[in-house]
Amino acid sequence: MNRTPHRSVEVPSPFAERLRHVREFLVKARLDGLLVTSRADQVHLTGFTGEDGIVLATAKEVYLLSDFRFREVAGQEAPWARFVMRKKGIPEELAKVVRRNRLGRIGVIPDRITVATGKDLRRVLAPLGTRLVHVRNVVSELRMKKDVEEVAIIRQAIRIAQEAFLAVRRSIRLGQTERDLANRLNYEMGRRGASGPSFPTVVAEGPNSALPHAKPGGRVVRRGSAILFDWGAWWQGYRSDLTRMVFIDRIPPQFRRWYAVVLEAQQRAIRWVRAGRSIRQVDRIARSYIAERGYGERFGHALGHGLGLDVHEPPSLNARNGARLESGMVITIEPGIYVPGAGGVRIEDDLWVRDTGAEILSSLPRDLDWALLRL
Amino acid sequence: MNRTPHRSVEVPSPFAERLRHVREFLVKARLDGLLVTSRADQVHLTGFTGEDGIVLATAKEVYLLSDFRFREVAGQEAPWARFVMRKKGIPEELAKVVRRNRLGRIGVIPDRITVATGKDLRRVLAPLGTRLVHVRNVVSELRMKKDVEEVAIIRQAIRIAQEAFLAVRRSIRLGQTERDLANRLNYEMGRRGASGPSFPTVVAEGPNSALPHAKPGGRVVRRGSAILFDWGAWWQGYRSDLTRMVFIDRIPPQFRRWYAVVLEAQQRAIRWVRAGRSIRQVDRIARSYIAERGYGERFGHALGHGLGLDVHEPPSLNARNGARLESGMVITIEPGIYVPGAGGVRIEDDLWVRDTGAEILSSLPRDLDWALLRL
């Protein structure tokens, strides 16, 4: 093992609070440590963005087990954590830390660890008398409710996405392909500081808009085109996620009908959002309206999802989620209507759940008039 | 469960061959089915690129269990597979398929499935008397050796990356930031048809080049800059991965020394590459040369890795890999020297392993003169 000399730096905010939360959990669950194996959970707890490694949080220390490639980055991003440079496999290096600190019970999160890694860890830890215990994902739970610093970052990720979209929208020309537009949108987000798109940008013309996760292809902008944009900016680790329609020169009558239904469903759901409300009920508000208008079979996905370090994170806003909205959650609301072969409409905004209702973080116009672009 | 009517379409090449391979494995391992849980493995076996789902291959059928969002895409990409639209969770839908087909033993790949999913599947399958058996990853093994169609796609992914780089290189100006250049490079790859970069593009100026996975930031191009580019294009699911240095107007003496060592190490390793050679020995050729020249401590990562649907896939070319190179593998060779605070040099090319040696798929010049750019 190759330990860099430990600088005793105080843990800065917001990591100090997050660690405190995890350590309260360690006490409650009678654990000597928690293994944090998912990248986004690691970033949340430590700020370390290296692409390979494992984090072990104990009552006194936070260990970053990673490799040569990320040593310097770790020193910059989390100088208060102990970087353990692995020469062999992670299990072997972990065993050394566990032995030195005499850790008896270590929590692992079953949906964040592979069966193979679980086996490997047990193999090296069992001889030390150390037990791996399945625990709930405290870090993921923590991530659901955003603190003000996180919301400030998400606001900026939304601002970048919106400004980039407006720039691309101004430059749309007949004959451009879906691919051109998606590439241009990614570029405009990058120019405004995005590390990249939040997810592969969707630009779907005409019948392609019926595919909720369409890949941009060779379909071109023409008079009468209905184009669905679903995009977001990745900024300082956080992600925005928006959907808007653009109609070129005229709005095909079926799209006009779908748009009115989707927008009203979205607005009803947004008005219903508030801390304490049942998530399944928010979904139902939008879904039942769409069904009433005869499109129930055309809206097959969840109404929305949590948004943060991951583009899809808890809570999922679907008909089976019996939990309640909590103050601080950042969620999307994105109903849609999809008619295979004909096309689809989706409208998506990002919301911050508060005790008094929803603060809508995204601010692009939603009305049909604005969606019409005259070339 | 919601089954779309099954169209009996013949399985097209290359999926027919891959399926045959998997079915031979089913027979040998006395399995009634194999669960394919990783995205890239699913793409390899079926062509289905939907972002959510699980694949079950049996002796007679291939089932795609996914959701509403990907139904239409599945019909386009793998019309010969049976699409099972899940309404509830995947385990429940899987149980129905298992019961209907009376499958007794199903293989799962332990490093491709989470502990939580493993538990969920056992919970629904145990009452049916069905056993989950841990098996080696046949699909991943299959993926190591590329067929000619795959190599043709990778060649194209390399071509896109190279042309985009040349375009950006021509347009480098003093004062541009690392971020500008990375964003521009992504855009130029997109213009040439890339679905995106293979991985977050690295552009690292000066001391940042000492970080093997640097994030592009605000450092600017100036006279005397040493700039490391590590980038690749993602095309039709496959990825290229290249690294080149650009020196602006002059080459700092330490970079000149490092460059000569890295280039010679790379060339020695490339000349050694051939089907049948020990992987660890290829690594040693480059590593021992770098060590001889006094930089042993400055080259801390693996010499290279397999390249395909994932940007890092087996085999890893490191000092611990006792396996042998096989004809058909596509690998990177990318030695480097990194001096924290001062800078680093890496040179990376993509190779196709053949019985007679390596075919170098990438063709950008590697000599130091070319790396010098006069503005």
Q: Explain this structure to me?
A:
The structure is a homodimer of 375-residue chains. The first copy, chain A, has 375 residues and is of the alpha+beta class. The longest helix of chain A has 23 residues, at 148-170. Chain A has helices at residues 15-28, 39-46, 71-77, 90-101, 115-125, 138-144, 148-170, 178-191, 253-272, 279-292, 368-371, and strands at 2-3, 33-36, 54-58, 62-66, 82-85, 105-108, 131-134, 196-197, 202-205, 226-231, 233-235, 238-239, 242-248, 304-306, 313-317, 330-333, 336-339, 343-346, 349-354, 357-360, 372-373. In chain A, the strands form 6 sheets. In chain A, strands 1-5-4-3-2-6-7 form a 7-stranded mixed β-sheet, with helices on both faces. Chain A has a 4-stranded mixed β-sheet with strand order 9-10-13-21. Chain A folds into 2 domains: 2-142, Creatine Amidinohydrolase, Chain A, domain 1, CATH 3.40.350.10; 145-373, Creatinase/methionine aminopeptidase superfamily (Creatine Amidinohydrolase, Alpha-Beta Complex). In chain A, helix 4 (90-101) packs across helix 5. Chains A and B meet through helix 5, helix 8 and strand 8 of A and helix 5, helix 8 and strand 8 of B.
